[in-house]
Structures are given as C-alpha cells and as structure tokens.
Amino acid sequence: MLAVYFFIGLVVIQRIIEMIIANRNAKWVKSQGGYEAGKDHYKYIVLLHSLFFISLLIEISITNKGFVLWSIIPLIAFLLAQVGRVWALSSLGRFWNTRIMILPGAKVVAKGPYKYLRHPNYAVVVTELACLPLIFQAYWTALIFTLLNAFILSVRIRVEEKALDEATNYTKAFKNHRRFIPKYEE
Q1: Which secondary-structure segment (H or E) carries 51?
Q2: Rounded Cα–Cα distance for residues 170 and 144 (Å)
Q3: What InterPro entries does its record include (predicted)?
Q4: How far apart are CA 18 and CA 112, in angstroms?
Q5: What is the pLDDT of residue 186?
Q6: N or C: which end of the chain has fewer CB within 10 A?
Q7: For residue 41, what is the enclosing H or E element?
Q8: By CB neighbour count within 10 A (0-12 exposed, 13-18 middle, 19+ buried), where does 158 fall?
Q9: What residues make up the domain containing 93?
Q10: What is the DSSP letter of 116?
C-alpha cells in the first residue's frame, strides 16, 4: 500500500510544480499586457482537482485494493498521458497555464500536439482523471470525477475559445482542428 501512496504523492507533487510554473507564466502574460479570462469558474477547477485526490486516497484506503494485473492497461494510458502532458506544456512554453491567460494580438501556438488538436492538454487531463483511479480500482472516483470534469471542461472550453477568438488568431489557426480527436485527412 505504501507504493500506492508514493505513486499518488508523486502525481500531487507534479501538480504543485505545475501550479508554480502556471503562476510564473501568468505573471509573464500580465507583464506583456495580457489578462485572465474565466476567473469565475477557475476556483471550481481547483476544487475539483483537489477533491479528486482526496476522493482517490479515501477510496483506495477504504477498499484496500492495490495494483492488479489488468491495472497495467490504465497505468500505460496514464503514463502515455504524461508524455502528452509534457509535449503540450513544452509546446505552449510561457503561454501554458492552468488559468485562461490571454495575450491580445498574440498568435496562438499551433505546434506540437496543437498541430493536430485544439485542446490536447484537456485530453490529457480527461485521460488522467479516468485512468489514475482505475490503476487502483477506485471505480467511484473514476466515474464521479470523470463526469464532473466533463461538465467543468464544457464550461471552460467555451469561455477559453471565446476569449481566444476575440483577442487572437484562434479561429483562423484552428478552423480545421477538432477539440480532442485528431482529424484524419486524406
């Protein structure tokens, strides 16, 4: 069980480091004349992700289930999502954030995974919230937080796309991109 808590602890540490990076990037965007959009719903995203880890730890502790052979499937999906996360974050560079930070007149990043999808980082988050609990057979956490995340992302994506459309070349740059699934072109 200690290995389970250690693994989850590593993911939490990763999130804390990302928050530090996001705050640094937000300061940079603001120093360049940018602003934050969607402030009203951001607190719910933070709450959702915090409660996700609490729920995951509680469910794992109560059910006392750990890693089983088929856990390798969601583990591989989760690890691949981490590769996608690094790719998405490094592609955005200083523009990556957990908040919706808008720099008017900036050209949107359309390289890396953004060459294929409008929201690869959100696809990563969806994968993580579904797969991390499944690694440890925390089915309720997987189900509840996947649904809650789908709801909050439906709000966030609308706000983000509207803000980007109003202040950048977003619509033109991503007119042929789908949100989460790459478009197959012949």
Answers
A1: helix 39-63
A2: 32
A3: ICMT_MeTrfase (IPR007269), Metal_cation-efflux_comp (IPR052527)
A4: 19
A5: 44
A6: C
A7: helix 39-63
A8: exposed
A9: 2-173
A10: T
Q: DSSP letter string over 129-185?
A: HHHHHHHTT-HHHHHHHHHHHHHHHHHHHHHHHHHHHHHSSHHHHTTT-BSSSPPP-
pTM: 0.89
pLDDT one-digit tens code per residue, 71-103: 999 999 999 999 999 999 999 999 999 999 999
Per-residue confidence band for 59, with pLDDT thresholds at 50, 70 and 90: very high
- On whether residue 25 sits in a domain, the answer given is yes
179 domain-assigned:
no
Q: How far apart are CA 96 and CA 114, in angstroms?
A: 12
Give dist(CA 96, CA 112) in Å, integer: 13
- Whether residue 181 is contained in a domain is answered as no
Q: 67 is written with which tokens?
A: 């890693």
What are the tokens at 129? Answer: 């919230």
